[in-house]
Automatic annotation (TrEMBL), chain A:
Matching CDD domains: PBP2_OpuCC_like
Gene Ontology CC annotations of this record: ATP-binding cassette (ABC) transporter complex
N-terminal signal peptide: 1-24
Domain of life: Bacteria
Keyword Signal part of the UniProt annotation: yes
UniProtKB keywords: Signal
Protein name: Osmoprotectant transport system substrate-binding protein
Domain ABC-type glycine betaine transport system substrate-binding residue range list: 31-296
Keyword Nuclease applies: no
Pfam families hit by this protein: OpuAC
Cited InterPro entries: ABC_Gly_betaine_transp_sub-bd (IPR007210)
GO molecular function, one term: transmembrane transporter activity
UniProtKB/TrEMBL annotation, chain B:
Subcellular location(s) of the protein: Cell membrane; Membrane
Protein name: Osmoprotectant transport system permease protein
SUPFAM superfamilies named in the record: MetI-like
Domain of life: Bacteria
InterPro entries: ABC_transp_perm/SBD, MetI-like, MetI-like_sf
PROSITE patterns, alphabetized: ABC_TM1
Keywords: Membrane, Transmembrane, Transmembrane helix, Transport
Pfam families (UniProt xref): BPD_transp_1
């Protein structure tokens, strides 16, 4: 008899105590939910937003990690499951969530995306963090020196002798894929090997490929000291990375808007390469990388008193 | 990190990210416990009910059985459509998975009690409620705990999958490991604590189960029921 009563009292009190844990802090209103996708970059930026909001306000922040793609994040934002997306790219959203034609000028793309998100979805697409994660051709240091390569156009003279490693999905992509590239730049590589994107950095570093197409924020660019060739014809659409938040949240909690604005123009593409490298190669969790970065910069206390 | 082997990387990972892993461990555990406790609050009364009204038992156990057959990923996806992303969806999934072991063990525990004991209780003039509280529940308690134990071990596994719908927990670390360049150590850093949690939960509850069983607890009594009736 007594043990039964004890068990039930135990279960009930545990439930009560535990429910106390979760809804703990904050002024009784709902937690701000930050959505990130599976990339390291997204996780780092998401954690930065979380830490910044916790540093400057009393709001509690919940992370929704590992979402499959920016389309899933977009749906979550529209459904109200999330209030902030940590990493949205102008190029991805323009063709993905908004269903527009790609725009090649970064400024114009950013303006269009900001305008359309505000009008169509009542969401604010902030200005960029300062880095862009786009496709770029890269070579190792020796190759760059040997042929004096700085821009993609410089490849023209030597391209027919070169072996290029590119992302498999890029080969058949319409618009900014391989065929369009050959047409726009007016030259072709000697041989093109479609390969998994994760392998291209090692391949070019080891000299197995002369030139590869990779992502500009990958940590291995910094660690292998690769030379990113400037896309002088602006062939690849811009993928500037920004936070996105619902206007509803920004109106209800204007202090959150100020916090997000503090992060604008703080992380350059090179900086992002380093942060990604910390996490991918040095086994640091994105949460720890974000915390170290913010501590180093004193949570941007001195920046923008607006 | 190329110069370290997986084993060294694993320890390096813990030394650098210990606090983060601990937070995820706690979150993982809380999600599992929430779901199981909710299921216990619903499942135990339901189990008692169907042991009294045998007609209901087939229906309710069938429903719980059907829930159990849905793969975890599918159940999470279905719940996600209705409830959205995040932890509460995973708690509900855990709750649904925990119903069957808890209901069924409560039901079996009560039904397997020696009918003579219940009859003698009635013969002594006990009311129905007294029979339930003084005979049936104490004797079936350890079987109920066994149900909770199964439910909790399953729950820890389901919660790991919950990372796919943004609930966090140790599954988060495992998914990150699969995306990292050389993520074996990270995957292990997520998987080993998850397994450890399940084993610990199992051991602790099996210890409680033994403690609470009146027959095993009082070996010196040849007729354990005498003790529990005096209790």
């Amino acid at each position: 008899m007594r043990s039964i009563v004890k068990l039930f009292i135990g279960i009930c009190s545990m439930a009560l105590i535990l429910s106390g844990c979760s809804s703990g802090k904050g002024s009784g209103n709902e937690a701000i939910k930050v959505a990130t996708v599976t990339t390291t970059e997204s996780a780092i930026m998401g954690n930065m937003i979380k830490l910044m909001i916790e540093h400057y306000t009393d709001e509690s922040v919940e992370m929704i990690n590992n979402l499959g793609s920016s389309v899933v994040v977009h749906q979550a934002m529209v459904n109200g499951d999330a209030n902030i997306s940590a990493s949205r790219y102008t190029g991805t959203d323009l063709t993905g969530a908004l269903g527009e034609e790609p725009i090649k000028s970064p400024e114009k793309a950013m303006k269009t995306v900001q305008k359309l998100f505000d009008e169509d979805y009542n969401q604010t697409f902030f200005d960029s963090y300062g880095f862009a994660n786009t496709y770029a051709f890269m070579v190792n240091k020796e190759t760059a020196k040997k042929y004096n390569l700085k821009k993609v156009s410089d490849l023209k003279k030597v391209a027919d002798k070169m072996e290029a490693g590119v992302d498999t999905s890029w080969m058949n992509r319409p618009g900014d894929g391989y065929k369009a590239f050959v047409k726009d730049y007016g030259f072709d590589f000697g041989k093109v090997y479609p390969m998994q994107i994760g392998l291209v950095y090692d391949a070019v570093e080891a000299g197995k490929m002369d030139v590869v197409l990779g992502y500009t924020t990958d940590g291995r660019i910094a660690s292998y000291d690769l030379v990113v060739l400037e896309d002088d014809l602006h062939f690849f659409p811009p993928y500037d990375c920004s936070p996105l938040a619902t206007n509803e949240l920004l109106k209800a909690k204007p202090e959150v808007k100020k916090v997000l604005e503090k992060l604008i123009d703080t992380v350059s593409t090179e900086e992002m390469q380093k942060l990604n490298y910390e996490s991918d190669n040095n086994l640091l969790e994105p949460a720890i990388v974000a915390e170290k970065f913010l501590e180093k910069h004193n949570y941007f206390e001195d920046k923008g008193g607006e | 990190m190329g110069d370290l082997n997986t084993f060294q990387q694993f320890f390096y990972y813990f030394s650098e990210n210990g606090s983060y892993v601990f937070m995820q461990f706690l979150q993982h555990f809380l999600i599992s416990i929430y779901g199981v406790l909710l299921a216990a609050l619903v499942g135990i009364p339901l189990g008692i009910l169907i042991s009294k009204y045998a007609k209901l038992s087939g229906f309710i156990i069938t429903i719980a059985n059907i829930i159990q057959t849905i793969p975890a990923l599918a159940l999470l996806a279905i719940l996600m459509l209705g409830m959205g992303l995040g932890q509460s969806t995973v708690v509900i999934a855990v709750f649904l998975y925990s119903l069957l072991p808890i209901i069924k063990n409560t039901y079996t525990g009560i039904n397997n009690i020696n009918k003579d004991l219940i009859d003698s209780g009635k013969g002594m003039g006990m009311t129905k409620a007294q029979v339930l509280y003084m005979i049936e529940l104490p004797l079936s308690l350890s079987v109920m705990i066994a149900g909770i134990r199964i439910a909790l071990v399953v729950a820890i596994g389901v919660t790991a999958i919950g990372a796919f719908i943004g609930a966090g927990g140790l599954g988060d670390i495992i998914i990150r490991g699969t995306n990292a360049t050389d993520g074996t150590a990270i995957i292990l850093a997520g998987a080993i604590p998850t397994a450890l949690m399940a084993v610990l939960a199992d051991l602790i509850l099996s210890w409680i189960e033994k403690k609470i069983d009146p027959i095993k607890r009082n070996k010196k009594f040849t007729k354990p029921t005498i003790q529990s009736l005096n209790d």
